[in-house]
Design a protein that fits this description.
The protein has about 280 residues and is α+β, with helices and mostly antiparallel strands. It is about 30% helix and about 30% strand. It has eight helices and eleven strands. Strands 5, 6, 7, 8 and 9 form a five-stranded antiparallel beta sheet that branches. Strands 1-2-3-4 form a four-stranded antiparallel beta sheet. The chain is elongated and about 70 Å long. The model has no long low-confidence stretch (mean pLDDT about 90).
Length: about 280
């Protein structure tokens, strides 16, 4: 059973719109939110710190809307929603509606509005390195993930030394897993991971070859997708001890959305018995 805080028609005068005069002169916008928040503890303690301060939310929206300029209501709604989800981790999901009462359409109307629903996504990554200062590369990757404005790092596994995978002769790997929350969509997250790999000097010259840093998306909520650039869940999870061992440390009961088995079960039945320590 869900709990909600609702904010109706917060008025902000700001500069958004397709036409130059809208951006220059500004106009009125009305914001409404439906915030899914667990209010049980606040209902018992009567302590504001156990809930979400809707006054602070209104001030954040007001300041953000006036500090930026976008052409489309869609962009404004997406940006405000992401900002709130990252600023207030207590918000599980939110519905955002933005009304534009003075929309310049040249015809009589009351208002134009857009409405979207957004939430943070639970993601598991594998991280690995087998060149140079491996631990430093992994630590730097975790730091860059945590410093990304659209990512929360929640858990990091221990690092495990593992034998190379894929038949290419090379040094042992140092591998781990990361649990994070993000408002980025899978392709956006993949782009962010490639940027972090690039900062570590990662190249892709040899398939399964040596690398300074390797970041792979294992799971993204319980989403199942297969595109030219990205497959989720990662197809080789059931075959890789070097993934399942650290992942079992931070998410033992997570259920694979295709195989319907927990990470512990997959680890115990893993067909690849590589050395992990």
């Amino acid at each position: 059973m869900a709990d909600y805080i609702r904010i109706r028609d917060l008025e902000v005068y700001a500069n958004h719109g397709v036409f130059e005069e809208e951006n220059r002169l500004g106009q009125k916008f009305l914001f409404s939110f439906e915030l899914e928040v667990d209010m049980k503890r606040a209902g018992i303690t009567d302590d504001l710190s156990d809930s979400v301060h809707y006054g602070e939310i209104c001030r954040k929206v007001y300041d953000f809307t006036r500090a930026h300029t976008y052409h489309l209501l869609e962009k404004l709604a997406e940006s405000v929603s992401r900002m709130l989800l990252m600023e207030f981790p207590e918000i599980r999901s939110l519905k955002t509606e933005i009304k534009k009462p003075w929309a310049p359409v040249g015809l009589p109307l009351n208002t134009v509005s857009v409405e979207i629903t957004r939430n943070r996504h639970l993601v598991y990554l594998s991280i690995g390195s087998n060149i140079g200062d491996k631990r430093a590369y992994l630590d730097q990757a975790v730091t860059e993930l945590d410093e990304h404005p659209m990512i929360f790092v929640k858990k990091v596994s221990d690092y495990f030394v593992t034998k190379p995978y894929g038949g290419v002769e090379q040094d042992d790997f140092l591998n781990g897993c990361v649990e994070l929350e993000t408002v980025l969509e899978p392709e956006e997250l993949l782009h962010a991971l490639h940027e972090i790999e690039g900062h570590a000097g990662r190249t892709r010259e040899i398939h399964w070859g040596p690398r300074t840093l390797d970041l792979d998306i294992l799971f993204y909520d319980d989403r199942i997708m297969d595109t030219e650039n990205l497959t989720i869940p990662h197809k080789e999870i059931p075959l890789r001890d070097f993934v399942l061992t650290p992942l079992a440390e931070i998410a033992p009961d997570f259920v694979h959305p295709v195989l319907k088995k927990t990470i512990i079960q997959l680890r115990d039945k893993c067909r690849r018995k590589s050395e992990v320590w």
